[in-house]
Amino acid sequence: MMRLVVLLCTIAVFLSLIALLGGIGRRMDLMQHRFTQLQETERFYSDDELKKSFSERVFRPAVSQLTNLVKRSAGKRKTPGSSKANQKLEAQIKASGLPVTLQEFTFIKSMLGLLFLIGGVFFFLFSKIDMTYRLLILIVLVCSPIYGSSIFLRSRVKARKQSIAYDLPDVMDVLVVSLEAGLGLDSAIIRQYSKNKNTVLTELNNAIKEIQMGVPRRTALKEMADRCDVKELTVFVTALLQADQLGTSVKSVLQVQSERLRVERKQAIQAKASKAPIKIMLPTVIFIFPVIFIILLGPAAVDIMSTFG
After folding, report:
1. Is the four-CA dihedral 145, 150, 153, 156 of positive or negative sign?
2. 187: helix, coil or strand?
3. How far apart are CA 163 and CA 80, in angstroms?
4. Least C-beta-crowded within 10 Å: which of 124, 142, 155, 241?
5. pTM of the entire structure?
6. pLDDT digits (tens, 9 = 90+) for 23-49
């Protein structure tokens, strides 16, 4: 009997030790597993960081910090007056889609002018070329930021307007398909913007955000049309507001406007094609006809010169 009690006690102690050691082992395995996950996560993040290009790791953060510094510095300056020139410049900035205000754009333009002036003065003082060339280079460097910023802004506005006019029919077709699928106009615009962030959908999405923030629909859409200053978009917004006011189908309005824009685009292409022969005539006369005359009349001219020589 005593032997049986000792055996049972031994077995109980053995099972208790196994249970205790098993619990400790499971906790250690769990801690090791978590530690391994942390190491893999750290290695994964570091690998992702190293896979990025130099511009994403260094250049873009530096540009972002410089942009924030410029905005803070521009905010300390006085706001430009509300003259006609400033109003026109502000309208151009809005139409170009640049993420700067009139005050920031004026500040950047002034800083560029100052930097170019300093560089031109250093070049003028320490360069060893002729005085006339140094003075000419100084004038060019001083005038470059003034006229270059205006040229850049006008080209940006022109390119953006062309992009809006080109993308608008395709955007309307996609919105028609979304409306036929059962979405509302606002939901269709937001959904399409999440997939394709072109200029038209960006402007429409910004207008929808303003509407969601409490701005009246008519006001938001009219401000968008005035900001972009594109005839096709203005006509589209007008038709959309009339359809909303009269209660007509938005889908039919989009279809009609899309067909009209495609017809106008086709007519514009045909008009440009009809002007092509006239535009080709000038380089033909300047560059091709002289070469033909040299080839045809050159040998005869040489013979005549040799005969009378």
Report:
1. negative
2. helix
3. 30
4. 155
5. 0.62
6. 665 666 666 766 666 555 544 444 455
